[in-house]
Amino acid sequence: MPDRTKTYDVLVAGGGNAALCAAITARQAGASVLLVESAPKAFRGGNSRHTRNLRAMHDKPNAVLTEAYKEDEYWDDLLRVTGGNTDESLARMTIRASSGVFDWMKQAGVRFQPSLTGTLNLGRTNAFFLGGGKALVNAYYLTAERLGVEILYDTEVISMNLDDGFIRSVDITYKGFPETVHAKCVVASSGGFQANLDWMREYWGDAVDNFVIRGTPYNKGRVLKNLLGQGVAAIGDPTQCHAVALDARAPKFDGGITTRLDSVPYSVVVNRNGDRFYDEGEDVWPKRYAIWGRLIAQQPDQIAYSICDSKAFPLFMPSVFPAIKADTLEELATKMKLDPTKVRQTIDSFNAAVKPGQTFDNLKLDGNATEGLTPNKTNWARAVDKPPFYGYPLRPGITFTYLSVKVNEKAQVLMDNGQPAGNLFASGEIMSGNILGKGYLAGFGMTIGTVFGRIAGQEAARRARN
Amino acid sequence: MQETDAILTARHEIEVCNACRYCEGFCAVFPAIELRREFSAGDISYLANLCHNCKGCYYACQYAPPHEWGINIPAALAEVRAESYAEYAWPRSFASVFNRNGTIVSLIAALGIAIVLILSMLLNRPGNFFSAHNGSFYDIIPLWSMQAVGILTFGFSLVALAMGARNFWRDAGPRQKPGPIALTIALHDVLTLKNLGGGGNGCNDNSEAFSMRRRRLHHAMFYGFLLCFAATTTGFIDHTFLNDPAPYPFISTPVLLGTIGGILMLIGTTGLFAMKLVDDPMPAVRRLLGGDIAMLMLLAMIALTGLILLAVRATGAMGLAMAIHLGFILAFFVVLPYSKMVHGVYRSAALLRRAIERKMKPLGGE
Questions:
Q1: Are A309 and A450 members of one domain?
Q2: Residue A1 lies inside a defined structural domain of this protein
Q3: How does pLDDT run across B265-279, given as a tens digit for each residue?
Q4: Least CB-CB distance to A122: which of B62, B198, B366?
Q5: Which residues lie closer than 8 Å to B53 by C-beta, 6 or more apart?
Q6: Could you tell me if A87 and A210 lie in one domain?
Q7: Domain hosting residue B39, numbered range
Q8: B28: distance to nearest CA of chain A, Å?
Q9: Which backbone phi and psi does A370 adopt, to 5 degrees?
Q10: Which of A108, B145, B202, B232 is the most exposed place for a label (fewest CB within 10 A)?
Q11: Is residue A173 part of a domain?
């Protein structure tokens, strides 16, 4: 049982990847560390328990990554998805640091899967954790316990009491009972606010009722709101988040990976009114999956429907919910409560617009496009004509929000006046908006969490011992 | 396989796995799932028997209890495995032996000892049974009777196991025929227990920590068993064909093989038993524990009584020690196709199917 009366060198708020990287690094640097996780032990790990991989720069193939993925390509990918809404020096520092995290991660017990081949190129850019993010979180907790990091579960940080740029104390509720704890330095790694629907409603209105929160229900943004209310500098648009297309039948929280749908590139996607609204074949799915949540959020009733035929059905991973299946398009539309005549019309005009004569190849941008539609489908366009037909209803699935506390390259949290707080650091989703202004790159959240977690742990331990 | 509740539960959970796939690095089960979208009851039986019960997927699962979905693949597949043992049993009327397996294996072990003891006492005058025979077993129980009983019981069991394997193959086998490469791969996987290792890191016995303990103990038990079998076979050949009658000195092939094999078996079985006492009960099925433990104990007793027999073979206790040892072996021969031992047959067959299907492409995927 951790001693809650002593003054720790470092207190880490949060229990996911970024928090664990900070706690382990600080402990390895000799600091006494208290980690405060709001979830019960069974649900520890925040959103990290739903992750699978980490995007890492590398100049040559290694045990877990194929080919090469160099700094400039990584930076270009980030620039493209964020539309320039990023901080180049922090981003490049994160990218460069991502190439050096493997040895540390392995020593901390993380196991990787051998590089995947024949995939839509994620095996080149992303290192996959054996067993996924919960296995990674488990490994980090085992290591943290072995090293002597003190851990409190079921403990929520209520307030970090800032006074003149210094955290003097931290108010918590330990299993529901209010207490105050003390630490020389504090690392905020407690995630975004996407599970706080009331806060989300301030920006999205009642559309929030149609959002699915993919990950932990424990990311309420309490620390984020608390710090922003005490003169900490904010960065990022509060409506920006990592949002993907999910099966509309997903549970409101914690449905994780199995509710996502990869059907979009091989489908025709229509909205409530039976109209197409975006190029389904714009790019390979890993580069596009994170824009579709937002696209659907902008449709009436925040819902869309992915429709394909039996040619396309085996090409993508199934969601956990069975596809809606019918022998005719009209029957499928009726089953999905869409206007059958309208859906028939949309598909007929789509089929008529498919340019003939190209070879279909689902493993690359194959250039199979439609002509004369608004919008056109620019890759993998094939007539939807071979029954049975399959459909999935889609909703926006929110992974995490980007509104953040502003940090510098030492993971120090900056105050409104631009000065760093004296003993406050941040890592993970709570500061991701410094680098991710909008859009998303698969596995980049774990990269930010790992790189900044380690910096925050290092810097907090150094400051606490001085 | 019938569409039982266990099959329905396992199918539902496997479909969750197929939409997730995070565990594909742990073992052969998940890559096998990724090859298909629809799972017949036979397919689920195949997957259940392919599972080596390392429990890595349970601890890594974001949907494991207390998540509302409560995904627990090791337990779901263990239920199906247990049903498949009954389903494929030959003759079919013996299927119910798997229902109270612990009790029945224990009873047969007791009966085996009693029968051999009584018969060997009936065959011998009391003075002969309890006197020293310089280690010559056949003075007490004639070779022909050992052979007759052994061949009869073990022979029947081998036939029953083969029929069980045939039932499995018809229900849960692949479409294609096995080639030499598939057979080699499957044999390698059987002999190395590659899949009992969480992608090379070991099993999760009772926590998130990985350990090679179970794999090593199983190897000790399995290879110890093979050495003991080799000891018996070389003894039989020496005695029958090479004109080198038993008993054999301590430094001889049969005795050395048997001694090392017996010690390994004892280490393996007691170690695995000890692990059962502290294993996490969540990713397991409680009612199957009895049959598992009864078989571990039977094997341990065979090894222990064999070693005791070696120790006392020059004394007047040899007759008693041998009768008890042979009683346990008789029980093992009789109960073999109706015990946990069948897992070896069905798992090997499942590994063969996996090897045959090794070049099939996963459907979808990242």
A1: no
A2: no
A3: 999 999 999 999 999
A4: B366
A5: B74, B77, B78, B196, B203
A6: yes
A7: 5-87
A8: 13
A9: -100, 165
A10: B145
A11: yes
In chain A, which residue's Cα lies nearest the Cα of B14? A320
A251, B15: Cβ pair inside 8 Å? no
Q: Which of B16, B26, B365 sits opposite A131 (nearest CB)?
A: B26
The pTM for the full model equals: 0.94
Query: Across all residues in chain A, what is the average pLDDT?
Result: 95
Structural domain range at position A364: 243-397
Cα four-point dihedral sign A14, A17, A18, A21 = positive
Q: Which of B20, B62, B199 sits opposite A130 (nearest CB)?
A: B199
Looking at residue A375, the DSSP 8-state letter turns out to be S
Q: Kindly state whether residue B251 falls inside one of the protein's structural domains.
A: yes
Q: Phi and psi dihedrals of B131, rounded to 5?
A: -105, 165
Contact A246, A394 (CB under 8 A): yes
Which chain A positions have a beta carbon within 8 Å of B16's beta carbon?
A: 258, 320
Q: What average pLDDT does this structure show over A322-329?
A: 96
Q: Looking at the domain assignment, is residue B245 inside a domain?
A: yes
Structure tokens at B296: 């571990």
Q: B127 or A128: whose pLDDT is higher?
A: A128
Question: DSSP string of B68-136?
Answer: TT---HHHHHHHHHHHHHHHT-SSGGGGGGGTTHHHHHHHHHHHHHHHHHHHHHHHS-HHHHTS--TT-
Does A132 contact B60 at a Cβ distance shorter than 8 Å? yes
Kindly state whether residue B206 falls inside one of the protein's structural domains. yes
- Residue B161 and residue B276 in one domain: yes
Q: Which of A397, A412, A435 is the last residue of a domain?
A: A397
Query: Can you say whether the dihedral through the CA atoms of A48, B366, A393, B63 is positive or negative?
Result: negative
- Interface contacts A/B by beta carbons within 8 Å: 98
| CATH number for A368 | 3.90.700.10
Q: Which residues pair with A242 in a beta bridge?
A: A400
Asked if B68's CB is within 8 angstroms of A318's CB, the reply is no
What does the alpha-carbon distance between residue B86 and residue A167 come to, in Å, rounded to a whole number?
Answer: 65
Pairing outcome for strands A53-55 and A241-247: unpaired
Residues on B contacting A at a C-beta cutoff of 8 Å: 15-16, 18-26, 37, 56-57, 59-63, 65-68, 198-199, 201, 208-209, 363-366
Q: A399 to chain B, minimum CA–CA distance in Å?
A: 15
Mutate to test the interface with A, among B35, B62, B361 (most CBs of A within 10 A): B62
Name the residue of chain B whose CA is nearest to A263's CA. B364
CB contact under 8 A, B62 and A128: no
Please enumerate in sequence order all residues whose Cβ is within 8 A of that of A174, keeping only pairs 6 or more positions apart, or say none.
Answer: A4, A152, A154, A155
- On the question of pLDDT at A287 being above 80, the answer is no
**Chain segment A410-420, per-residue pLDDT in tens:** 999 999 999 99
Structural domain tally of chain A? 2
ipTM for this model = 0.93
Structure tokens at A348: 């007929």
Instruction: Choose among B16, B65, B68: nearest Cβ to A258.
Output: B16
A287, A196: one domain:
no
Residues of chain B contacting A249 with CB distance shorter than 8 Å: none
pLDDT category of residue A118 using cuts at 50, 70 and 90: very low
Q: Are residues B331 and B256 in the same domain?
A: yes
User: Do A99 and A142 reside in the same domain of the chain?
Assistant: yes
Q: What is the mean pLDDT of residues B210-228?
A: 97
How far away is chain A from the Cα of B175, in angstroms, using its nearest Cα? 20
Of A397, A418, A451, the domain-final residue: A397
Domain count, chain B: 2
Residues B231 and B246 in one domain: yes
Cβ neighbours around A337 below 10 Å, total: 10
CA of B69: which chain A residue's CA is closest?
A: A255
Q: Do A314 and B364 touch (CB under 8 A)?
A: yes
Q: What is the mean pLDDT of residues B254-263?
A: 97
Residue B365: band (very low, low, confident or very high) from pLDDT cuts 50, 70, 90: low
More confident residue, A196 or B247: A196
Query: What whole-number distance in Å separates Cα of residue A388 and Cα of residue A310?
Result: 6
